[in-house]
Amino acid sequence: MNQTKNRRVHFIGIGGIGVSALAQWYLSEGWHVTGSDAARSLITDDLIRRGAVVRIGPHKASFLRPNVSRVIYSAAIKKENPERQKAKALKIPQFSYAEALGELTKNHKTIAIAGAHGKSTTTALVGLMLLEAGFDPTIIVGTKLKEFGNSNFRKGKLGWLVLEADEFHGSFLHYAPFAAIVTNIDREHLEFYKTFGNIKKAFRTFISQVKMGGHLVLNREDKNLTSFKLKTRANVVYYDRKGARAAKVKSLLRIPGAHNHSNAMACDAMGKSLGIPVSIRDKIFSSFTGTWRRFEYRGMYRKAKVYDDYAHHPTEIKATLAGTREKFPKAKIWAIFQPHLAERLSLLFSDFATAFHEADQVIILETYKVLGRESVSPKNRDAKSLAKKLAFYQPARFMRNSKDVFRTIKKETTKGDILLFMGAGNIKNLSDKLIKC
Asked: Which of 16, 95, 115, 250 is deepest in the core (most CB within 10 A)?
């Protein structure tokens, strides 16, 4: 195998927020990067600008060139995928995104941020803190940061790696961190784990993988974490939102919500464990204005403020709406929500039905369908049923298309309203269109 062939990698599902960051690492190391994705996006456009060759559309065997030396695929890509089948026929080594990233963690001094919620914001804070402190880290995060030129990746030079450690399909179990944060544990990805007990078992295993002499930072306010009998050789620190230090951090923060206060305290505890001065930690908290699609201000529509948020789990919806109410206590808050994955909606239907109390008006869109991960919701647990359930307690409506949403907003919003678009699908397109109206 010649050197040129050794430096060619193909990504299946390259447009994913995590996979795209790993693709950027390969580009930064001088690899020839190709990839495929079902749909064009800002992420795929950015990868092309950076030098990757990306094919868009239904996956085809022809997208994979025979001179590729390794194939990396997202967790959503099944083994029946034609590109994976071709790789198998050509005997090209295949790695899941988590396996490939796990390889990276073994060659770096890795800080992994895990948890059902808050991973992206906490990873961003920790990454920026280490950068300010001179650690010069490589950073892989599940969102885009303006500090990195609206990228989800930053290349460092001193061997430190800060990454978002997702529990999806057990991905984080492939990582070998020197230090880790666990923000919380929740009933998420039940389509894979089946039971909450299995989720907790996976987190216990992840915790046990933190290296001897490393640092483990855990949320004292999460009863699931505090109930663990820890099996770890790391130095364990718990954080919470109590005391003088927490009050100081809260006063510095520019991002609203108790959940973000907790994320900041996780970062603060990790910084203290690493010996980073308080002055640097405080500087990060006072300057950080948030990330892409985390209560992101998008603009104005007829004197109403438009925000976009990635919240797609009931706990995240509650936290985002609570933070919105904290920031705008007297405003009329519109929650425009697009469920993500029919199976998630079905499994957590009761939790979704109690997640929107802080909203004054709720609009539920049709569930976003994810290629390769979709199932059919029972009719009594689909998006329309959710709107109907919510309507017993608050103003809530189901709307099948964006025209109905825009028509309603145009007719009913008034000066000072907050229009909050939430979901992990393509709902961002609606907020983009609205602010251009």
From this structure: 115
